[in-house]
Amino acid sequence: MTAAREPGSVDPGVKIEDADQRLADWVGSVLTDVAVSFDPPQAEAEGRGVSLYLYEVRPEAPLRSRTPPLQASLRYLVTAWAPTQPEAHTLLGELIFAALDHHEMELEAESFPAEAWATFGVAVRPSFVLRVPLRRERQEQPSKLVRQRLVVQTAALVPLRGVVLGPEDIPLAGARIEIASLNLSTATDGRGRFVFPSVPGGANPTTLRVIAKGKELTLAARAASDEPLVIRFGPLED
∠109-111-114 over CA atoms, to 5°? Predict the structure, then answer.
């Protein structure tokens, strides 16, 4: 069931002609026995009526949302005519107060340019500019379905132990060992030994960077090995 709409409201996705019709319906809800025209103001007109002349369509900045609607504002020059000027003024006044009370309409602070009236071939007359929003919702693009089975590989955390040796297998104290991928680092003790208590085990090797007395080595090691990792350096700087 479609909810009832307030006369003059503009639905998402409407066209400009739909907005025209909503605006005409709104005028009919405010004034009785008046004609509605979308033509420019005329020098001579019979009876009582209202001119809703659309003179500008202006794009608006999108709203901040995940899928913001496309927005524009419609600017209408609103005038009224009647057998007498006081009666025309009364019609215009009723519309002004009704527009001020309408949540989707806005009265422009700036009046219609006086020099523009010459293009209509009529003298300047009482009027106001009505701004009406026009929105068109954009359909959110559906996310693609994952049709393959998700496989999660896990690895137990195990210690990685080792020893760093220099020439003639002399233990190197103070050597620095880094695992950049895990943001881990440590240094060897007085016997050249080091340990990382918890690194991922399994078949994938862990890349180590070892720095000792100005020399550097990069190697891959598997933490799953039961034997301590032995890292040997060649001749070192004194």
Answer: 160
Residues shown for the chain: 238
The two structure tokens encoding residue 216: 């550097």
For residues 182-220, one letter each, b for 16 or more C-beta atoms within 10 angstroms of the residue's C-beta and e for the rest, the string is eebebebeeebebebeebbbeeeebebebbbeeeebeee
Residue pair 218/180 in contact (Cβ under 8 Å)? The answer is no
Beta bridge partners of residue 171, listed in sequence order: 165
Question: Across the beta sheet with 215-221, what order do the strands follow?
Answer: 184-187, 176-179, 206-212, 215-221
Segment 21-27 long-range contacts (CB within 8 Å, at least 24 positions apart): 23/52, 23/76, 23/130, 23/132, 24/52, 26/98, 26/102, 27/52, 27/95
3-state class (DSSP) for residue 6: coil
List of residues 6+ apart from 191 with CB closer than 8 A: 163, 171, 173
pLDDT of residue 10: 43
Amino acid (1-letter code) at residue 127: S
Q: Are 128 and 89 in contact (CB under 8 A)?
A: no
Provide the whole-model pTM.
0.53
Q: Which domains does the chain have, with CATH numbers?
A: 16-136 (3.30.2000), 157-232 (2.60.40.1120)
Between the two ends of the chain, the Cα-to-Cα distance in Å is: 88
Nearest to 79 by CA among 43, 132, 105, 121: 43
pLDDT in tens, 170-195: 999 989 999 888 888 899 998 999 99
Mean pLDDT taken over the chain: 83
